[in-house]
């Protein structure tokens, strides 16, 4: 988050970046286009040298790629998105699809996200989902290939990774799942 939200020179002052991002909640808009929040959580641990640090992760399931693109031009979405722009220092938005079918996920308290440039090993199971990254819509210029999400009961140890490298590890406490 930004330390203080930036609503521009004529905008509101004294709002933290987190408070501004909390105001960004386009759940009603998502419902109107057949999308829903599949996951939302605050980051509790991450690769040691990641900069800037991650604060929050959200995963939204869209009916189609077109519905995602169409949402960007909706006035009701744009009115909400101003809060995300004001509050977030940095955002990564990527399109993903499941690499293989998987059954229902056994829920837990936390989700570990492992984002890599290259292929990962392992198969989906009752606590793991694997996604292929089709493309990064917004990010830092790195190209990503796969995302593994693993539901865990306790916060796992997150090994340090190279800053700007091709692996990102983040653990989030589940608030919507």
What does this structure look like?
This protein has helices at residues 17-23, 27-32, 65-71, 75-87, and strands at 36-46, 56-61, 93-98, 110-116, 128-138, 146-152, 167-176. It has 177 residues and is an alpha+beta fold. Helix 1 packs antiparallel against helix 4. Helices cover 19% and strands 33% of the residues.
Report Rg: 17 Å
**How many strands appear in the DSSP assignment?**
7
Report the structural category.
Answer: alpha+beta
Order of helices and strands: HHEEHHEEEEE
Overall mean pLDDT score? 91
Net shape: globular
Major β-sheet profile:
7 strands, antiparallel
Number of helices: 4
From the structure provided, what is the oligomeric state, counting identical versus distinct chains? single chain
Question: Into which percentage range does the β-strand content fall?
Answer: 25-35%
**Percent range of helical residues:** 10-25%
The largest beta-sheet arranges its strands as 2-1-7-4-6-5-3
Uncertain stretches: none
Q: What is the straight-line distance between the termini?
A: 22 Å
Task: Give the gist of this structure.
With 177 residues, this protein is α+β, with helices and mostly antiparallel strands.
Topology at a glance:
Layout: H1 17-23, H2 27-32, E1 36-46, E2 56-61, H3 65-71, H4 75-87, E3 93-98, E4 110-116, E5 128-138, E6 146-152, E7 167-176
What labels would you give this structure?
177 residues; alpha+beta; 4 helices; 7 strands; globular
